[in-house]
Specification:
The complex is a heterodimer.
Chain A: H1 4-11, H2 21-38, H3 42-52, H4 55-66, H5 71-82, H6 85-90, H7 103-109, H8 115-124, H9 133-158, H10 164-185, H11 189-206, H12 213-233
Chain B: H1 5-26, H2 35-57, H3 68-84, H4 90-107
Helix pairs in contact in B: 3-4
The chains are: A mainly alpha, B mainly alpha.
Chain lengths: 234, 108
């Protein structure tokens, strides 16, 4: 089954001094408050965070509900905005694959793929033996997932104390945290260029197609960065 | 609201899980030293950067009410805190929230 020692080592990683727990928790406090304002009850709010566990997707769902979109519209909009999780999964799972580990662990733990957990794993995986990385990943995922659920709960009940300015502060917190982590992760030419080109091309493509801008920015920017990096190495 | 909240949550989670699951399934057999892995790594970082840039420049929800200039000031100051604090992730994050709340209540 799961190696408890490694699992808790992963779980405790959110207690590190540069942990995303505070940023993540605050963002889900904002989501909890938003869902309450939309008319969700506490069970629906918690259920939403537990099952979706992806901030942009929850925001898109909330917006779509607000404008009265159909279920098909919600599905497509969320799928587009969360399609970034696909390359994130492909660039993470090969680091954790080991023949001694059962497949169900990989299929089950793919639910934990989200920016915070992904970035923690990417910066820590080298210190964990490959066979045990999946248990470490399940620990990180469980921890960030618990923080998200707790944040939603707190946001739901404290929403009446949060004014518009505080909500704005909570909303900027997550992109700033991710921005700093991306700058911190930019240690090779390929990653640095990927971050720069993605950040420039994403907003440019927004003018042509808001729905496709993130994916197009990612694919064009990431491919260009990869090719430039390869040419540079050879 | 035109559709049931529970159905909306289920559809949202299904649409989200689809990308995660397909990623986990199709990554089998890909070696971490292969070119395709490196390419997907670049795609993932570029997509995240595009998402962050779009969230800050074209925000959805309450952040949309804070002007461009306000958001730009908060981003620049937070990055400055990040470098001054020797690349600590927590200080600039907390700073950004406090700075945005204070500036928004002053200017709006």
């Amino acid at each position: 089954m799961i190696n408890k020692k490694i699992f808790f080592k992963g779980y405790k990683s959110i207690l590190a001094h540069d942990s995303p727990a505070i940023a993540l928790g605050c963002c889900f406090i904002a989501i909890g408050a938003l869902l309450k304002n939309l008319g969700f009850n506490i069970q629906e709010s918690i259920f939403s965070t537990m099952l979706t566990y992806a901030l942009p997707g929850s925001l898109v769902m909330a917006e779509s509900l607000l404008v009265g979109a159909s279920l098909l519209n919600i599905f497509l909009a969320v799928w587009f905005v969360n399609a970034r999780l696909y390359p994130m999964a492909v660039s993470l799972f090969p680091l954790m694959m080991h023949k001694n580990q059962p497949k169900w662990k990989y299929y089950f733990s793919c639910h934990f793929i989200a920016v915070s957990a992904w970035l923690i794993m990417k910066s820590n995986y080298k210190s964990i033996p490959k066979e045990q990385r999946i248990d470490y990943w399940i620990g990180i995922g469980s921890a960030t997932w618990s923080v998200a659920v707790l944040g939603t709960f707190l946001g739901f009940y404290f929403s009446e104390f949060l004014n518009k300015e505080i909500m704005m502060g909570l909303a900027i917190l997550n992109p700033i945290y991710f921005l700093c982590m991306m700058v911190g992760a930019s240690k090779t030419i390929q990653i640095t260029l990927s971050v720069l080109l993605g950040a420039i091309l994403g907003p440019i493509f927004y003018f042509f197609s808001p729905e496709w801008s993130i994916l197009l920015g990612g694919v064009v920017g990431g491919t260009a960065a990869y090719l430039i990096g390869e040419i540079n190495v050879s | 609201m035109s559709v049931s909240v529970v159905y909306a949550i289920l559809v949202t989670s299904l649409a989200t899980f689809l990308s995660r699951f397909l990623g986990a399934v199709s990554s089998q057999g890909i070696k971490e030293t292969s070119k395709i892995f490196k390419w997907f790594n670049c795609l993932a970082y570029a997509t995240l950067a595009a998402l962050i840039a779009r969230t800050i420049i074209f925000p959805v929800g309450v952040l949309n009410e804070a002007g461009y200039l306000l958001r730009l000031i908060v981003v620049i100051l937070s990055l400055a805190v990040f470098f001054v604090s020797k690349r600590n992730y927590v200080y600039p994050t907390i700073f950004s929230a406090v700075c945005m709340a204070l500036l928004a209540s002053y200017f709006n």
